[in-house]
Structures are given as structure tokens and as C-alpha cells.
Amino acid sequence: MRRRNRKRKKHNTYLIRVPIAGIIVVGVTVMLGYVWLNQRCDSLGRELKSLENKHESLKRVRQQELFKWTHLKAPERLQAALAEHEIFMNWPSGRQVVQLRKHDVRSDPWAYDRAQGYANADRGTHE
């Protein structure tokens, strides 16, 4: 009679052991996180570049508008515009000028003299 082999065969129920599976899961998670961060940085970089281009174009437009404005408010241009619309202006006379001294200027520009009911301005006697 033949002797029976009593050694039990150990059956491995897991295809991959648990610690190795954990390492693989962590590695895949880290790789996916890296890919996500890389894509996010790329999209932010593209957005930043487009905003910088827009900023530069707005700076150019601002410079052009400043040039136009300074050109339009030149004294010769103002006099020509006044003459075109038949508006005649002269420099103010001495009686029309209000001079304020430093101690007359208040911190609140809307403050007024309550007793008189109107703003209190000291008119100089420059005639």
C-alpha cells in the first residue's frame, strides 16, 4: 500500500499580498495627483498669460487715451473749442477770486457756518 502524502498544500487565496496592494494603490494615487496638479498648473499658466496679454493691451489703450486727452486739453485746443462754440471767457478779476488761508481750510469740505446757513468763505479785497 502506498503511503499517503499528508503534507497540506497551502493555497494562496490572494493574487497579490495586502502590503504590496497598498503600495500600488498609494503609488497610483500619487501619480494621479501629480497629473492633476500638472494639468491645473498648465491651465493656470495659460490663464495668467492671457490676462497678462489683456493687461498689456489695456496699458496701450490707456496710454493712447492719455495722449489724446493731453492733446485735447492743450491751451490752444481749448481756445479753439471755445471759439467754435462761441463761448467767450476772460480771466477773473481780483474781486472774483477767493483766497483761502491755511487756517481757513477745514478738514470737512462740506462744513458750513450754522448761524449764517451757508459756507463761510473769507473774500479778499483784491481790487
List key phrases describing it.
single chain; 127 residues; mainly alpha; 0% strand
Summarize, please.
This protein is mostly helical. It contains two helices and no strands. It has a domain at 18-90.
List the helices and strands and how they pair.
Elements: H1 18-72, H2 75-84
Major pleated sheet? none
The structure class reads mainly alpha
- Distinct helical segment count: 2
- Stretches where pLDDT is under 50 for at least 5 consecutive residues are none
Taking all residues together, what is the mean pLDDT? 81
Question: How would you describe this structure to a colleague?
Answer:
This protein is mainly alpha-helical. It has a domain at 18-90. Helix content is 51%, strand content 0%. The protein contains 2 helices and no strands. It starts with 17 loop residues before the first helix and ends in a 43-residue tail after the last helix. The model has no long low-confidence stretch (mean pLDDT 81).
